[in-house]
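Me: Here is a favour to ask of a fellow structure person. Could you put it straight underneath, so I can go through it closely?

Assistant:
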Amino acid sequence: MEIVGIEILEEMADMASRSVRINDLSDKIRIVHGDLRDALDVFGAGSFDVALSNPPYIRVDQGTLSPKIISLLPNMRCHALFMMW
């Protein structure tokens, strides 16, 4: 089994890759710096048996976010349904 992680923020992708190496999991886990919306073009249809996502869950119709929270989010955000991917 191979696990592929896709991370849009380069710094977070680098940190995840380091964690994989430190934990001696390089033969099982690969981290890719990229955008989930481009996964079909990058990997091709049928490349995965299972897809999981852990996006920031922020309702766009309620309140405002603190500057601290905004600074932690990727610069490139989109409003989409998971089923679109």
Notes: Residues 35 and 41 are 10 Å apart (CA to CA). The beta strands are 3-7, 29-33. Residues 3-84 form one domain.
